[in-house]
């Protein structure tokens, strides 16, 4: 009897050791599957960098905006008094827009919204265009959310075309590059040179495709009512200031000539988001506008608006984008039938 019991104990121990081995092996395999970005042609190498004073001006926030390293970098921060931000000195009609950004440090940034985006809401409040990177703060043990969005003519029938991506790295530890390409062929969002979303111009989406000159904005502000888990978690100002750092600023494209520094928007109230801020009065754009277009980048070969590198994605880029979206896409408006019982028409072609 004792021998039988001993045999059962040994069998149980053997089974338990095998189980632990399988679990540890699975965890090790999962760790090995961490995403390794492919090596793609670096589009940022095609265009020059600008210092802050060359291309930007303060938007709001006073001393919460700090220009450093002779204009090579800039910090914007949110505290209990105000957010902050900066704005391009020109409006652009198509182009290449990029910055390397390090997000606010810490394991709790709920309610904080960090944004890098193009908009003309100040000039066209009822029919504005917008192309957004929005980075939504996180509660403890949860990652930052990267949200992209596209508006055209106020988005006509459908208000917003959001998608969310879970980042495959910690954006608070070091700088990562975020890029918007916008031209008559497509809009592309890139992270560290990898496309994560493409909006292709088609007849179907044309009424909602951004088509009017826009200004580039970089802002940080309190989005507590909606930003983190639908507003469940708010900004904790005991942890402020929340500081975001920008460097390697690049803005290249067709410049709208009917734009001067004096027409920049006034600073919004500290309690307002940028979307609620007072509108400037730059005048109504001419019905027959003139453009001053950048026809080459820093290497003298790449057209920022119509060059081969920016008007279409390569096969390698498409493959990388498909891999990212398969593993890290967490929300797409084209899959949200609760929000859109009848999906926007472009979703039928995806």
What does this structure look like?
- The protein has helices at 2-32, 52-55, 308-311, 315-328; strands at residues 56-60, 65-68, 73-78, 84-102, 112-119, 130-136, 145-151, 163-166, 176-182, 186-191, 194-200, 214-222, 242-256, 291-293, 329-332.
- With 350 residues, the chain is of the alpha+beta class.
- It has a domain at 77-257 and 319-348: Jelly Rolls.
- The protein has a 15-stranded antiparallel β-sheet that branches.
- Strand 10 and strand 11 form a beta hairpin.
- The longest helix has 31 residues, at 2-32.
- Mean pLDDT is 83; it is low at 20-32 and 259-288.
- It is found in: Secreted, Cell wall; Secreted, Extracellular space, Apoplast.
- One of its GO terms (biological process) is cell wall organization.
- The active site is at residues 130, 134.
- Residues 267-283 have a biased composition (Pro residues).
Query: What CATH first level of the domain at 77-257 and 319-348 would be assigned?
Result: Mainly Beta
Work out the strand percent: 25-35%
Q: Structural class from helices and strands?
A: alpha+beta
CATH topology tier name of the domain at 77-257 and 319-348:
Jelly Rolls
Globally, the shape reads globular
What ranges have pLDDT less than 50 throughout 5 or more consecutive residues? 20-32, 259-288
Helical amount: 10-25%
Order of helices and strands: HHEEEEEEEEEEEEEEHHE
Integer-rounded radius of gyration: 23 Å
Overall average pLDDT: 83
> Any idea what the CATH architecture of the domain at 77-257 and 319-348 is?
Sandwich
Instruction: Quickly count the helices.
Output: 4
Q: How is the biggest beta sheet arranged?
A: 15 strands, antiparallel
Number of strands: 15
Region (Disordered): 262-310
Biased composition (Pro residues): 267-283
Active site: 130 (nucleophile), 134 (proton donor)
EC number: 2.4.1.207
């Amino acid at each position: 009897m004792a021998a039988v019991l001993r045999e059962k104990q040994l069998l149980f121990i053997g089974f338990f050791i095998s189980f632990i081995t399988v679990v540890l092996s699975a965890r090790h395999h999962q760790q090995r599957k961490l995403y390794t970005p492919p090596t793609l042609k670096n589009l940022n190498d095609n265009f020059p960098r600008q210092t802050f004073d060359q291309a930007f001006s303060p938007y709001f926030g006073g001393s919460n905006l700090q220009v450093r390293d002779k204009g090579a970098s800039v910090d914007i921060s949110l505290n209990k008094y105000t957010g902050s931000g900066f704005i391009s000195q020109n409006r652009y009609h198509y182009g290449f827009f990029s910055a390397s950004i390090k997000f606010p440090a810490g394991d709790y940034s709920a309610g904080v919204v960090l944004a890098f985006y193009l908009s003309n809401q100040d000039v066209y409040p009822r029919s504005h265009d917008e192309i957004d990177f929005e980075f939504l703060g996180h509660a403890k043990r949860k990652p930052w959310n990267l949200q992209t969005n596209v508006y055209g003519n106020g988005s006509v029938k459908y208000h917003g075309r959001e998608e969310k991506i879970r980042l495959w790295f910690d954006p608070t530890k070091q700088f990562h590059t975020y890029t918007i390409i916008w031209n008559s062929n497509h809009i592309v969002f890139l992270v560290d040179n990898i496309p994560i979303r493409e909006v292709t111009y088609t007849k179907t989406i044309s009424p909602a495709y951004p088509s009017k000159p826009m200004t580039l904005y970089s802002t940080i502000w309190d989005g507590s009512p909606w930003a983190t888990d639908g507003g469940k978690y708010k900004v904790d100002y005991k942890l402020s200031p929340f500081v975001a750092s920008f460097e390697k600023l690049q803005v290249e494209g067709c410049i709208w000539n009917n734009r001067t520094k004096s027409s920049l928007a006034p600073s919004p109230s500290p309690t307002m988001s940028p979307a609620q801020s007072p509108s400037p009065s730059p005048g109504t754009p001419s019905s027959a506008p003139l453009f001053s277009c950048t026809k080459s980048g820093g290497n003298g070969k790449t057209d920022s608006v119509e060059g081969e590198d920016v008007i279409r994605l390569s096969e390698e880029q498409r493959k990388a984008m498909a891999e990212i979206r398969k593993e890290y896409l967490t929300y797409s408006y084209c899959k949200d039938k609760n929000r859109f019982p009848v999906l926007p028409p472009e979703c039928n072609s995806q």
